[in-house]
Amino acid sequence: MIVSRRVVALAVLVAWGLACASGQTPPAPEPLGNLKAKADLNDEDRAAVREFITQRIGEMNGGDAATARQAAAQLRRPYQGASEAFRRAYATILIELASSAYPKSSLVPATQLLAILDAMDVVDARTLFIGALKDERVGVRASAALALRRLRPKLVAAGFDVYSAAVAALRDAGRVEKSREALRGVYEAMNYAEVGASLDLKPAIGALLDLLEARAKLHAGNKDVPALGADDAGLEAATKMLRAMSDDDKRRLAAAAGTITRFALERYLSPDRNFAELTQGDNPTLLELRNTLERLVLVGERTLAAALSPPRAPTVFESFRKHDRAATRLAWKEWATLLQAATNQDFALSESRDAP
To answer: Is 316 in contact with 328 (CB distance < 8 Å)?
Structure first.
C-alpha cells in the first residue's frame, strides 16, 4: 500500500512538473508562432495544429526521457499568449487527440496529458477527465480528480446541468474507488463550498451525501474497507457545505459520520491490538493505520458536532487522545444516544473487556 501511494504521488508530481517545464528549458522556436495571433483559423491552419499536437504526443510516448520532456513542454507552450481563436482551436484538437491517446499511453505520459489540459482550464475537457475517473491506473484517476477540482468554477459557469453531471460522475467514481489518494481527490473535487457563496449547492450536497452513505455501508460491516482513511476528506467537505443543508441532509450526514467514526473506534479499541502503545520504531503499516483511525475519530466527532449541534457536545477525542479506553467508550455512548434520537439508528459500540 505504501509503495503504491508513492508510485501514484510520483507519477502525478512528474506529470505536473513536466507539464510546467517550459519555464525551465531554453526557449525554442515556435512551430505554430505564425498562427498564435490569428483572429480566425482556416482548415489549413487547423491541420498544422493537428500535425503539431500529434507529433508531440508521439514523442511523449515513444521518445527517450529528454525528448519526452521537451515534447511535453512544447505541447503546452503554444496555448500561452495566443489569441482566443487559436486557443479555442488548439484546445479542441488537443482534447480530441488526448482522449484517444491517454488510455493507450504509459502512466507518465498519460498523466502528463491530463496535467497539460488541466493547466489550460478548459471546460470542454471535462468529458475527458470524467472518463479518466474510470481508468484502471490510480495515477490517472487521481489526476482526473485533481483536474475536476480546478475546473469547478468553469463547470458552474457552464450551467446547472454541466455542474450536476460532474458531481454525479464523481459520486459514481467514488463509490467504486479503491485508492485512498484517488478517493480523497474525488471528495475534494466535490467540495463546491469553495466555489462561491451564491452557488446552489444542492447537487453537490446530494451527490456527496450519497457517496458518504455508500462509504458508511462499507464501514458498517466492520471489515476491511477499501481506501480506508479517505473519508475524513468527505466529512470535511460536507461540513463546509452545512450552511446549505436541510435538516434531512444533516441527519444523513450525522448517520454517515457516526457509522464511520464508530468503525474507527471499534478498530482502535479492539482488544486484539493496543494502538496506544505503538512507538515510532514499530511497524510502519500499523503506525499508519493508527494515525488513520485517529484522524477519522477526530474529524468524525467534529462533523457530528456540526451536524447535530447538541447543547453540550461529548468529547470522545479528548479521552481517546489520553488513551483512556473506558472514558472513550462512555463519551461515545453519549454520541450514540444523540445519534439514535436524530436518526433512529443504533450506534453503540460492541462490548469489550474494557467496557465500563
So the answer is: yes
| Confidence (pLDDT) at 2 | 40
Report the C-alpha gap between 213 and 149 in whole angstroms.
Answer: 21
Per-residue pLDDT for 302 more than 70? yes
Cα–Cα dist 68/119, whole Å: 18
As given in the structure block, the three cell numbers for residue 268 are: 482502535
pLDDT grade, residue 155 (50/70/90)? Answer: very high
What single string gives the DSSP state of each residue in 226-285? TTTT-HHHHHHHHHHTGGG--HHHHHHHHHHHHHHHHHHHHHHH-TT--GGG--TTS-HH
C-alpha 72/C-alpha 64 separation (Å) is 12
Cβ(212)–Cβ(173) below 8 Å: no
Radius of gyration of the chain (CA): 24
What is the DSSP-derived secondary structure letter of residue 39?
S
More confident residue, 146 or 319: 146
Residue 62, C-alpha cell as written in the block: 515513444
Alpha carbons 46 and 286: distance in angstroms, whole number: 56
For the stretch 235-291, pLDDT in tens is: 999 999 999 999 999 999 999 999 999 999 998 888 777 777 767 767 788 888 888
Cα→Cα distances 142→8, 9, 54, 211, 226, Å = 8, 9, 25, 17, 16
Q: Is the pLDDT of residue 43 over 80?
A: yes
Closest alpha carbon to 188 in 135, 237, 239, 256:
237
Pairwise CA distance, residues 261 & 253, whole Å: 12
